[in-house]
Each structure stands twice: as C-alpha cells, then as structure tokens.
Amino acid sequence: MTPEPMPEVVQLTEAGLAIGHRTVPLLSGEVHFWRLDPAAWPDVLDRVVEIGLPLVATYLSWRRHETAPGVFDWGETDPALDARRFITLCAERGLSVHLKPGPWICAEEPGGGYPDWLTAHTAAMALDHAGQVVYGFDQPFLHPTPCYRTDWYQQAAQRWLAAVWHQLRHLVYPNGPIVAIQLDNEPSFAFQDAAYFADYHSASVAAFRTWLADRYRHDAAAWRAAWGLGSGGGTAGFEEAGPPQPGAARRQLDDWARFQEDSLIDHLAWLWSIHKACGVEAALPTVNLIPDPLHEMPLRHGRVRERLGERLAAGVDHYYEPPLAWAPIGILARAAATARAAGEPLVWAPEMMAGIWRTPGQAVEYPDPQPAEEAAYWGLALALGHHGFNWYMLADRENWQFAPISADGRATGFAAPLAKLIALLQVEPAILRGRPVAPVAVYWPRGDALDAYSVSGTMRQPDVPWADPARRAAFDARVALTDALLEAGLVFELWDPEVTPQPPDGVSCVLTIDGDNAAPAPARPVGEGLPEPPVRLTGAPAGWQALAVLHTTPEGKWLVYLVQWGDTAAWDALPGHLMLEAHPGVLPAGGHWVDPLTDDALPAAGPLAWSVEAGPGHRVLTWHS
What we know:
With 625 residues, the chain is an alpha/beta fold.
C-alpha cells in the first residue's frame, strides 16, 4: 500500500498544529538559548520534555548575530550563538521549534534586538508628528525605531533574514523541526503606535498620500470634503496631503489610524514574502499582538488575518503585575472574545506570563509571583477560552526570574503546576476544544476606540499634551462594563458591527452603555434583565476571588473551570470549601462532575450544588450523566 504523501505545509486547526500526519497542541515554552550557557542546553531541554511541552519557541537576536553590516557570528566566536546546534538538540528530543527572527524582537534585549549600527542610521528612523526620532519602549533599553518603508532598513532586514535561512533552511519542516516562524514582534513601532508618534518619516508620508488617493478613488475634492478642509483646502491634491497633527478632526484621524494599521500589516506581509523567497514557506507564519490598553487600536486582530491569509496563527501576549487583579483578567477575556469574532481556529496566547521580567538592581513595588497565583492566571486564560499557549519564559535568563526552569536546567517551584496543567490537557483533550458559554455580548463600536486612540499616549509616554479624558469616556465605560461582567461571573462576546453585521450566536442580549442611541437591536442597557451566570463559585472569603466558567464542546461535552486566587498571606486561613452552583436547566439532568486527573466525583451539596475544596489555582471538571 502506498503511504499518503506528507502534507506540504504546517496548518493551524482547532486542535493545534497539523504537522505532517500528526496534530500537536499549540503549547510551547520560550527558551532563549543565546542567553544561556551552551553546556546547560541539554538539561534545559530535558526539563521541557519532562514538563510535557511539544514545542520550544526562541528568538534570534539580530544585534548579536550581525555585529557589523554583513559580518555574522553563528557560533564561530560565541558558542552561545550556535543556533543550529540548539535546534538540533531540540530535534533529538522530539521537540518542534517556533523560530522568531524578528527583525525586532523586544525580548528585554538592548535595542529590542536591532543592531546598534542599524539604529545609528538616523535618516532611516521613524519620526513623530514634530519631526523627532521615535524612541521605542524597552526599559531600560530605549532605542530609535526604523521607518519600515525606507530602502536602507529594508535592505538591511532582507540581508539579515537571508542570512538566517542560509544557516537554518535545512532545519525547516518538512526536513527539520522548525514548524512556525514569527513575523516581527508585537508590531507597534516598539510600542510607539499612538496617534501622533509614528510614523511621519517622508517615506511613510509618501505612502500615506498614495493610500489616501486609493481610499478616495483619486477624487481630491471628495477627500477635501471628508477631511473638512472646505474652501480653505483650495484645490490641494493628494500630493499635498499630510498626516494629521494633534487636535485633528475625527475623519482625518480615522484615515490615519487605518493607514497605520495597513502599514504595520504591510510590513508583516513583506517579511513573510522574504521568508517564502528563502524557501521556508512550509512553516506556519505567526503574529503576536501586544495587549494594548486601547483594545484593537490601531491594529485589529481580524484585519491581520484578513490581509495575511487564513494560514496564520495570530494571538495576543498576556502578562500581569502581582498581585493578580481583575484588570489583566479583563484583557484576557477581551482578547479571547476578539479572536473568536475574528474566526481564529483556536485562541492563542503567543506569550503567556511565566515568571517575571527583572533587570538586575531594579527596584519594584510589587511582590514576587507565586506558583499557585500564576497557575490561577493560566487557569483563567483557559476558562475564558484560550486553547494555545507559549509560556514566556520557560527558562530563566538575564533579566528574568521565577520561570519553571532555572538557567542551569533545574526544575523550579513553577514547573510542577505547569506540568500538572499539561498532564490535564493530555488526559482530557476536550479542554482544548471547549468554548465558554457566553450569555451576553457587549456592543463594541470601533468609533469609541478611535476617540480614545486620538487622545492617548503610549507605554513610554502615557501623559501627552493632547490628552482628553472626555474623549476616552465611552471606551473606558465599555472596558469597565466587561470587567464588571466578569466579576459577576458572566463571560461575554464582543460585537463590532464593522466586523460582523449580526450579534454572535448564542447570546441572549447585547449590552450597551449610556448614550448608545445608535446601537442596533436587540440591545439594552446594563441592568435591564441580565441573565444569570450558568454556574457560580461562591463562598470566597475577603481578599479572595473565585470564578466558575462553563464550557461546551462541538461534541456536546460539558466542562467547568474553577479558579481561585487572592491574598497569598491568607492561604493558610482559607475556609475548607466553596460552593459550585449551576443555574436550573443549564446542564443535562442526572449527572455529576468528575476530575479527569483523579476520576474523583465532586461531592454533591444539593440538587444543583457541589462542594469545592478551597485553595489557590485552578481545576477543570467534566460532566458525566
């Protein structure tokens, strides 16, 4: 019998990565081999295998490999830069590799990975509205950010990526373990993508004029009318159009934001074209988006997928500052709802916090993360609908602490909860196919985000002269609404009519905020007959939080996610048990909850109530009827 031919490319499916004739869950851990002693690589990778992860993710730092234009070091001078050896060690252990060559990587790396000789070329750097060079946010490493459209930057980046694949092409699927390639990193001009910060370089302005001409069908009069230029605009044509300045009219800002979005995606598409030209198109392209405080501005998840094609894995990076609070949990929920609305096969966190960034000597005001608290954060991500993760970092290194694996390859206290989670996913694979039962949708028009974008700063410059809290009010109210729904135990969907004309399937109502006079039916303000949560977890003491989320799978299976977190100093004083309660009519009759890791049934405390052991972390139970 003739064997089936090997599939030509890696695909993203609802179950993970389809690699050849096997499907691998999209679960990986970040290991920066070039920051570790090469003698420790085998031990670190052995711990990865013990934890149970099938993939390793790693950056390549352009600045370390190309020390001068055209001068490369792939381990000949510094053994820690021997990428071929590290990737080969992964392959020997059956580990696949997600390679992330930038050009920009952030990674708490000087220059974000850009070479010093690159950022010293001032003529190719991005400019802000005042004509000043844009400096990205990478504390304590601030660096100029290139204009992606300049010939000099493009030639340098193309040379770098060609050098990468000259070294590593033979290690790419189907011949080797590299199965995915990340396009740049957190595309945002190094977190300087606010309305008036980037990019006003002449190359970008020229592209903006071309973009405007296309948008207005080369009708300059229509453009002038749309921008409110009126008679003051005279007979100016597109060749005289300029990017908006602070205080610009909304239509000008809308055009500018959409152009910025297209510019970032153009850059990603250009990078993918280089990879394909180098013969590595069988690997899966990936994009990681920042958890921007301004959700989906200026870069929208769905737009990335629309422009780059269906064979793409895209997701949002997630971190929190201890102690765990509702604000970062709300970001988890909004990111998951957005991915579902964008039609992602699965919701993926390209960076899921494990440990924390700590620069040596840096004074911080927050406490150290705790294994149980981080486990709760991971459990919340699962509960809110994430089905793929890259734990960042999996191994400690410079500027990082409290990862599951130490820099010399030992398991730390954070390894056990991660290994337990991976074991749970292996025992009950339905967890990675479930979808949270979301009774409500929140009306989420893009205009509110645009207004907030027009008056906000960035991570590096949060306070700007054009700040205006009133312009942010509607956007902030929607964020507060989604956070309040979570605290009430209600998972939600987001509905932007610009994305889908009808509300998501399965919701019983669409929630609005005061002033949403234009909201489409069936919308109603908060407080008018909110549905009850399908399940509740009650009895948490003061200083503690608990969340229960019900999931259902395409096969009709029911699961419940139980997460508890709070004051670490009070762990020993927690009550013995909390109460899980189900709303009548939600679950099939005559069943009970079972822990798939132990096969133990949850003790019943009433017809629709069960006793749950109190304690930090998370559990997932399946319904047996």
